[in-house]
Amino acid sequence: MFKQLLRTMTTTAKLIHSETPGPIEISILTKIQDSFSPTYLKIVNDSYKHAHHAGIRGATNTTESHFNIEIVSSIFEGKTLPTRHRLVYNLLDDEIKHKGVHALQLRTKTESEINKTI
Amino acid sequence: MPVIEIKSQEQFTELTQDDSSKLIALYFYTEWAPPCKTMTSVFQTIAESKKDDPSILFLSINADDLSEISEIFEVNAVPYFILIRNATILKELSGADPKEFVSALNQFSNTPEQQAQAPAPAPAPAIQKKEVEEVEESEDELNQRLKKLTTAAPIMLFMKGSPSSPQCGFSRQLVAILREHQIRFGFFDILKDDSVRQGLKKFSDWPTFPQLYINGEFQGGLDIIKESIEEDEKFFEHALEAGA
């Protein structure tokens, strides 16, 4: 579905985020844009799906704890998946360690990968 | 008296029916399970320290060789300890925890508490069930323990909860994927051991769980495994071959 979505778009950079992003989401978006210069960036706040789960109950941050992030950037070129994800984790270290971001679902691609025909 | 290595079922029957007042400590082990290597010497040391106490009998049983005895006691994880008196099971302990064993021994023995001079290695989890105690260990010792854990099985899953009772959606999904591909894997419940939980984040350079290791090499979390399978249906087989 990700690939189909991209093919219908133009080549200008795309940014998709929540209608009213919270402070953490804004911080994440800014950091990714500054460091990775993505051609496509989509962030979805999934925290509400986990708000009542055992692992997060009682935590101070239940509104910006889980995000699903899709990034297309040339910075991922030639890197294995674990390395790519580590780039993102290191960038968002502060949010994870100190701001209560509990989990990130990540999809990290390069332009050439998404343009590959199946 | 020191540890008696059981060689046959007849010998076992003879020793256990001998004296109904004796406290009998059974230790089930296998040659191949890593935690047993540590526990075998621990068990021997504890037995040595109690050698002047005639009311306790220490029996060591190779669970593979003497499988009938293992079956009678329904032992399906090693190391495993059973304390018996008068043909009654007093306590069963699964996993490699010297402190727990010693306290159970003291609890049921007739003699007053003696200081068992057992060495205190960092407790290691049994392959299937684990009861791990919080022990002061240095970063080096922790890393050594993590090295052993990540190589405990060709495919090791560090998850929240257990495969039969996962405590997080991502862990549950990864278990489902492994089962779908009929992959044999070992697991470790990081909710049960906080030093492993925090230590592994550093060791793997990865902040979240679940974490999958193949042949001692970190592979990734749920997203990466999902993507890897999308790209390569035989991802697991290939990864196993590569590292073997």
Automatic annotation (TrEMBL), chain A:
Q: Which SUPFAM superfamilies does its entry note?
A: BolA-like
Identify the stretch annotated as signal peptide in this record: none
Question: Pfam families given for it?
Answer: BolA
Write out the GO cellular component annotations: mitochondrial matrix
Q: Which Gene3D superfamilies match?
A: BolA-like (3.30.300.90)
Q: Which GO terms describe its biological process?
A: [4Fe-4S] cluster assembly
Task: Please give the InterPro entries that the UniProt record associates with this protein.
Answer: BolA (IPR002634), BolA-like_sf (IPR036065)
Q: Please give the family membership noted in the entry.
A: Belongs to the BolA/IbaG family.
What name has this protein been given in UniProt? Bola-like protein
TrEMBL record, chain B:
Protein name from the UniProt record: Monothiol glutaredoxin-3
User: Which GO biological process categories is it annotated with?
Assistant: actin cytoskeleton organization; intracellular iron ion homeostasis
Q: Name the family the entry cites.
A: Belongs to the glutaredoxin family. Monothiol subfamily.
The protein's UniProt keywords, in alphabetical order, are:
2Fe-2S, Iron, Iron-sulfur, Metal-binding, Redox-active center
Describe its function.
Monothiol glutaredoxin involved in the biogenesis of iron-sulfur clusters. Binds one iron-sulfur cluster per dimer. The iron-sulfur cluster is bound between subunits, and is complexed by a bound glutathione and a cysteine residue from each subunit.
Highest taxon of source: Eukaryota
Q: How does it assemble?
A: Homodimer. Heterodimer with FRA2.
On whether Iron-sulfur is a keyword of this UniProt record, the answer is yes
Any one annotated GO CC term: cytosol
Instruction: Note whether Iron-sulfur occurs among the keywords.
Output: yes
Task: Tell me the GO molecular function terms.
Answer: 2 iron, 2 sulfur cluster binding; glutathione disulfide oxidoreductase activity; metal ion binding; RNA polymerase II-specific DNA-binding transcription factor binding
The record's section on Pfam families has: Glutaredoxin (PF00462), Thioredoxin (PF00085)
Q: Where is the Thioredoxin domain?
A: 1-110
